[in-house]
Amino acid sequence: MNFDIEIDKFVSAVESAVQGSITESIKLLSTIQSQELSDWFIEVGQNAGAYRMKGLGRNISKQHSGKQLKWPKNREYEVLKRDAYRCRYCQIRLVHEKQLDAYEELVGNEAFPNGGTNRSRHGIRLIMRATFDHIVPVSHDSDEDKNVLENVVASCWSCNFGKSYFTIQELGLECPREPIFQDGWDGLTTILGN
Predict the structure, then answer these.
(1) d(CA 121, CA 109)
(2) Domain total for the chain?
(3) DSSP 8-class letter at 114
(4) Which residues lie across from 121 on neighbouring strands?
(5) CA-based, 20 to 30 A from 95: which of 52, 125, 132, 154?
(6) CA-CA distance, 110 to 121, in Å (whole number)?
């Protein structure tokens, strides 16, 4: 499946809704392969780290401290702007939850669901929703402060959940701190507001 094609359909649907063509927006939204996106996320995306570890012949039952720490909500847009609203691992275009909710307000929950389970969410929500990943996992035992800007990158749900508590070294990933391309993508903030 080509995620960019599905994302382009979503952008067109959002543009139609913002222009007042709600019926057209819902029609465009219905052309997105939501079920296929959801299935991919549930079966592959959120398990990518475990698959990668198995493929590398590494132990996936690593013990971790259980520590959890979220990036502060008031600093989320700072990271997204720095990272050009792209997942620093896979480069997929990201949209903040506020913009996804703003679109839902325009077209309704029936057209763009956000249920309590992955199966009850629109597939676009699963692949485009921005989250924030600690490069050195919070659960990784060390004395260094992990909730600092230099250790946090924008991430899609798939890469964040897939990476889980593994380090980038364990997963054989390149460091996501490297600069990424700028293409003008702003996570729909221009048309849906902040």
Answers:
(1) 10
(2) 1
(3) B
(4) 114
(5) 52
(6) 10
In a 13 Å sphere around the CA of 90, the CA atoms on its Cβ side amount to: 21
In a domain, 130, yes or no: yes
Distance from C-alpha of 134 to C-alpha of 136, rounded to nearest angstrom: 5
Name residues whose C-beta falls within 8 Å of residue 172's C-beta, 6 or more positions apart in sequence: 52, 56
Q: What is the pLDDT along the chain (194 residues), one digit of tens a residue?
A: 899 999 999 999 999 999 999 999 999 999 999 999 999 998 888 887 777 777 777 666 655 555 566 777 889 999 999 999 999 988 999 999 999 999 999 999 999 999 999 999 999 999 999 999 988 887 766 656 677 888 899 999 988 888 877 788 888 888 887 767 788 999 999 999 87
Confirm whether 185 is domain-assigned. no
Asked, for residue 100, whether it belongs to a domain, the answer is yes
Tokens of 64: 């971790």
Give the strand pairing for 152-156 and 130-134: antiparallel
Query: Mapping DSSP to helix (H, G, I), strand (E, B) and coil, where does residue 95 land?
Result: strand
pTM of the model: 0.88
Q: Which domain holds residue 54?
A: 3-174
Tell me the residue length of the chain.
194
Residue 184 lies in a domain: no
